Amino acid sequence: MYFSQLPPTASTPSTGYAGQVPRECAAALGAILATVDFGRKAMVNAAHEGLQASALTIFPPETFDGVDPEGVGRSLASLILCYFAAQGNQTTQWIEPDRGEALRTLAVHLTPTGQEALLQSFENPQGDNAFSRYFAHADSQYFAQADAYGLAGHLYFQRAGTPLLARSIDKTPEDASAQAAADYLKAADLFTRAGQPGLAGDAYLRAADLYTQTHQPLRAVDICLKAVDAYRGAFQPLKVADACLQAADLFTQTDQPLKAVDARRKAADACLNAAHGYLLAGAPGLAGDAYLRAADLYTQTHQPLRAVDICLKAVDAYRWAGRPGQAGNAYLRVAKVYTDLRQPGLAADSYLKAAHTTRVDADAHPAESRYALAAAAYLHVAKLYTDLGEPALAADAYLWAAQAYTRAHETGKALAAYQQAAEANEQAGRPGLAGDAWRSVADLHTELGEPLWASGANARAATAYRSAALGGNDVRQSLSAATYYLMAAYASQAAGESAGAAAAFIMAAEAFMDEDLPAAAAAAYKRAEVYSLAIDACAKAARDYLEKDDLLSAADAYRKLGFLLRRADQPRDEVDAFLTAAGLYARAREYKAAADAYVEIDDFGRAAHFYEKGGMFELAVRAYEEIYRFDLAAKVYRRVSAQAAHDGERTQFDLLAKQMSQRADIHLARYGRNL
């Protein structure tokens, strides 16, 4: 990049400062700036370090106070680099300190002489000082013209905020405040000219505060509105909102309610703009905060449905940010709005969503206290639904409360919530769900060492399940009657009611037969110890599976049939059932199952064959040992040895085969033949 050199110094020495940089300094600055690549941090740092000493020589020694020459040098170097980066449309991200910090530092260290020179440069751009020469011109070679305005703005801003200057000994507090307000306004004007509207907005608000303190609200509100415009120009929507709210308060003080409402609505709109900006910037958590602030303002300005809509946007933002707890707070605000609007149903729904998000937060950050909070929220929702005459919704909320209390290890409260869920489900005509809740009550009583209470809860569960099985127009259920009878039977068993359990198992079996589920019916009849009916149902199941060519299921059914026939003391039919099962297992290549079926009827020879066929040679050997066919067991080991992959394995199996042959010889010698 080409940078023009400073004009040569005057050939005639001057006793005063002529606003010109010494020739050697100009050459040094030009050389450094001509080689800077602003996209490379190391090169920018090197240039910055090289510029610091030379930059100080641009100004007469009396310009700065000498307290922090290094800081002043760094600040001047930063301004020079920022100016040249801007000239080449290059980045300034590696320049430290940045422009704002550099200007603040210089303003602090300006001497009265330096301050006077700076301010004179605005009145006389052709004046004989460094500020006129290098700041006041649009074609300045080292500093941006806007930096002069910015520096002066910081000067006025700092002077206005300095108590010693604002309340000097020759001024009353009122005069000092008036002077400070004027300085802030001057700073705002200079910041605006410097292209720093955000700083201008800050100065305007400081001035407005002073006017408010000195009981000039009309003047203060005018200044607040200027701050609003300044922040809009700086694209700082949250500060726009702050300024609008300050103006709204002043409008209220001056008895202008409509303007106050309008200002608050503008503040809400500004918060909404901020939220959208945060979303685009990938900061959903901050977006959620801004949405909630907007929602509050819409509520204050009598736009409740708008507030609800914005709260729901906050929920989405917080979920995106992984902050379920904050999403729950947003739902609570929605619930409050609906409560104020006297829409209890919608309020209850919102409280439920808040409770769900609290539970999600607890799952994300497991802690007993978090689950207890979720449980309490669910209980509140349950009571709301109860008051609304919605027992089914109340029952669901009680159930969620019980589950949360369980995670919080508060067993007593969980038990009470389960019982409330059971009773609410009964009231809602959902006996099946009531039965589930009563079983949970029974389990917790058992856990607490209260068997009598557990028995009573199981009895109530059985009653509820029977009601579900019977059905009716007023009963809402999700499972079949047979399933509910079966659940009633198990609950009766747990309650120690054997007769009731048997009756329920029989009813379940009959219902399963009606549903053409003979396998399930057989299991239920077996539980009731009605073996004749269990045998008939199981045989039907087996035939049905065969008709469908489902060999494996048919084999399982015949195996179960064999056990049922054994319990019914029908040995011949039992053998036929196990033989059929074994044959079907073999056809399905389930060799172990086939072998096991043969073992049930003591057919160890065929069992051994299928064990070996399935690669289970140890089981095959044991089966041959059961019938004293040690010779055949030895052959198994020899076949395994021949298939072994390693010499060690072959040696081991050969030894086992030899031992089995010896046992065969001993058996032959003792009994004369193999049995």
TrEMBL record:
It is a peripheral membrane protein. It comes from the Bacteria. It is found in: Membrane. GO terms for molecular function: soluble NSF attachment protein activity; syntaxin binding. The keyword Transport applies. Signal peptide: none annotated. GO terms for biological process: intracellular protein transport; vesicle-mediated transport. SUPFAM superfamilies: TPR-like. One of its GO terms (cellular component) is vacuolar membrane. Pfam families: SNAP (PF14938). InterPro entries: NSF_attach, TPR-like_helical_dom_sf. Its main location: membrane. Keywords: ER-Golgi transport, Membrane, Plasmid, Protein transport, Transport. Belongs to the SNAP family. This is Gamma-soluble NSF attachment protein. It comes from Pandoraea oxalativorans.
